[in-house]
Amino acid sequence: MKKIILLFGAVCILAFTTSCGYKFSMGGNLPLGITKVSVGIFQNNSSETGAEDSFTTAFIDELVKTTNADIVDQNDADVSIKGYIDSITFGTLTRASNDSVNSIRVSAIVDLKIIDRTGKVIWSVHNFSDYEDYSFANTNTLDQAARRKAIEKIAERIAEKIVGRIRDNF
Questions:
Q1: Strands (DSSP E) found in 13-158
Q2: Whether the Cβ atoms of residue 62 and residue 71 lie closer than 8 Å to each other
Q3: d(CA 133, CA 112)
Q4: What is the biggest distance separating any 2 CA atoms in the chain, rounded to whole angstroms?
């Protein structure tokens, strides 16, 4: 009986690990033989202070996590990546009454350029957008934390999608 249970357990584990089509993309190559990348701090053209840190960090983290590229100084890089936060906007999503907001939608629009050593733009994306909703608590500390978390989630998703496009040969 013990052997049957062990055999059944082994078959289940094997089935779950081999039948799923999902796999991690870790260590993926970048196109054009790019192995060394410089990532500048995203230029923040929005009024949201500190958003450049969230977007830059998310982009670097995604490159490190899902590609084999080394993040290096601009002088040593095959390409430089420059990101631009065009806008971050906030809008009421739901209200409890005319005077009370329940949830807010944060939207961000980003541009990104990949520039080779000669200064030529070899790839770019414009007006790449995403959004995140968060609950509004009407307390400054909680609302600021929720706002910051929403921006970080947007930055992570945008980084994931753009790096995916880059890995897929633009």
A1: 36-39, 43-44, 70-71, 79-97, 100-116, 121-135
A2: no
A3: 24
A4: 70
3-class secondary structure, 49: coil
Give the three-class secondary structure for 12.
Answer: helix
Do 111 and 83 meet the contact criterion of CB atoms below 8 Å apart?
A: yes
User: Alpha-carbon distance 87 to 99, whole Å?
Assistant: 26
Domain ranges of the chain: 2-167
For tokens 């960090």, what's the residue? Answer: 57
Helix-then-strand count for the chain, H and E: 3, 6
Three-class SS of residue 88?
strand
Beta carbons of 38 and 80 less than 8 angstroms apart: yes
Q: Choose between 110 and 22: higher pLDDT.
A: 110
Cβ-Cβ contacts under 8 Å for 41 (sequence gap 6 or more): 52, 53, 56
Beta bridge pairs of residue 39: 81
Q: Taking the domain 2-167, which CATH number applies? A: 3.30.160.150
How far apart are alpha carbons 154 and 76 in whole angstroms?
Answer: 30
The tens digit of pLDDT for each residue in 79-103 reads 999 999 999 999 988 877 776 778 8
Least trusted range by pLDDT, from 20-29, 43-52, 114-123: 20-29
Stated pTM of the model: 0.79
Place 18 in a pLDDT band, splitting at 50, 70 and 90: very low
